[in-house]
Amino acid sequence: MDENKAPDIVEETGEGTDALAEFRQNHEIYKFRETPKIVRIIFIILKYLVLVLGCMLVILPLLVVLLGAFKTHEEYITTNVFALPADPQWENFVTAFIDGDVMRGLLNTAIILLISCAGTIITGTMTAFVLQRFNSLFTRAVKTVFLIAALLPNISMQVTVFQVINSLGLYNSIWAPCILYIGTDIISIYIFMQFLDNISVSLDESAFLDGANYFRIYWSIILPMLRPAIATVLVIKFVGIYNDFYTANLYMPSKELGVVSTALYRFIGPYGAKWEIIFAGIIICIIPSLIIFISLQKFIYSNLVTGSVKE
Amino acid sequence: MAAATKANTKKRSVSEWLRGYTGQKYMTTIIFLFIPIVLMILFTVIPAVNMGIFSFQERDQFGASVKWVGFDNYKTLFSDSSYFETFINSLYYFAGSFVQQAVALLVATILCTKIKFANLFKGIIFFPYMMNGVAVSLIFRRFFQKGDGITNTEGTLNSILMLFGADPVKWLSNTDIVNWCLVFASVWRYIGFDIIMYIGAIQSISPDIYEAADLDGANSWQRFRYIIFPGIRPIIALQLILAIKGSISVFEIPYIITGGRFGTSTFVIRTIDTAFTYQHVGLASAMAVVLLAIILIVTGIQKAIFKEGK
Fold first, then answer.
1. Which of A178, B24, B207, B218 could form a disulfide with B222 if both were Cys (CB 3.0 to 4.6 A apart)?
2. How much is the pTM?
3. Helix (H) or strand (E) holding B291
4. A305 and A243, same structural domain?
5. Considering only CB atoms, which chain B residues are within 8 Å of A24?
6. In chain A, residues 269-298 whose CB comes closer than 8 Å to chain B
7. pLDDT, tens digit, for every residue of A103-116?
């Protein structure tokens, strides 16, 4: 491609354009025809049309939810989905939040998130530290097992994970999802290991020579430096756990142990015909995601997406 | 180094060894990896081994009655066509993922040109990816709902159609179209992720190349055809392979929107039902083994392709 580099051009002088014309003749790839202005304008219009259409497709289903959540039941069963609520009701939100167990769901989800995130960060960073820094037959073997484990299809595995959870006496307890989120999270370990690749080993070595033991090195040097990676893992964990449905559905059938997903899922039974309450529940559950998304938008784009691609 | 000088004095106490370089390494490895390895054995190794063993048995979830049946479970799987029919449903999602990749690429390319409010457009289209799967599924239950005149008015889609004078359609109970509806919900949920990924890939192409093309008056299509597309081809290939894995592992959206009824069941839904509703853990294990085998094959192909590429 090097010989295809366009020569330096000074637009105003005739020389430059001559050189450019000559260059275009010599290199076929540059023989593009000038686009007429009208075509370019149509292109711009088309571009915005595609984007507006895409946004409408995203917003329309959500708009119906937002409008419906403020309607009374009579209004809901008589008016069109796009009709504005005559007298906006907040009652549905109260019903969904308290009677519909969304509050308990949010609380349980928060507890699970807290325990799982803390657990993942501690065990994940320790594992990554040992696997990345110490190269022995043992650590290589563990790495290989993790590599294979990452391929196992998560939901199908529950067929046999269930027996383990059950025989540990964790069935129908909040510890079941917590321990699964901590124990089967290999992606986080990879993210930590990748980050450790870029932290110089000489740092550990000089600390070691100064008399620090490996726990000190991990705690006072490695862990603080891993902060950006920890932030990435926290975002991935939040999205994964907050939105996970099946783990909670399978291991915590009891009503008291509902999380956000299962609380919403259970709306289908008692409120099956009361969509205005379901809508209110959906909105309450989306708000935390929306807040996190708006406040961390750029961070999410660069970390959530690139982080999970490296799977 | 400190460890090396210590190694010269041959007689060392255990505590000295522990404080040395190698000793510390061993101790740290054992202490730091203890919990992760226990968890790994409990929740990955044991279940994986059990999966293999159980697939030759007939048993329920609680192991009350265990009977060895040899290859019977696999024979059932491969002879009863109803199990493999669920794989046909995966083809809908696979076809959908092609459309998803094409649209994502188009939107990503557009967002990488000069666009006003690009961040707003990007944010709106990406947000469904952040949303709770149950919420998405319920939203699409309502989106495709057919009104019955008593408890429900027409859903979103039918309301739009009626604005244009069309008749309402039973989207979710018509076996001919219901899978396409679920694919639509799935594309709606995940496309934002692909768009962001493609934007990242497009932006990693050197701006010098674009400048040179601009100088030569390349139009948008030529820009895409000769610069963007060749530049991100490996990522497109990777995405399509991931789409195969994704479409055979579809679970949440059909499970919540239709409960797998009206011909929307997938292999994973069937596996879960077999294990937990019908308590045929042996057969379900065999199904999980088959799924794992398929995923391993696809991963093997992926590794082979991408080693060649680099």
1. B218
2. 0.83
3. helix B281-309
4. yes
5. 216
6. 273, 275, 278-279, 282, 285-286, 289-290, 292-294, 297
7. 999 999 999 999 99
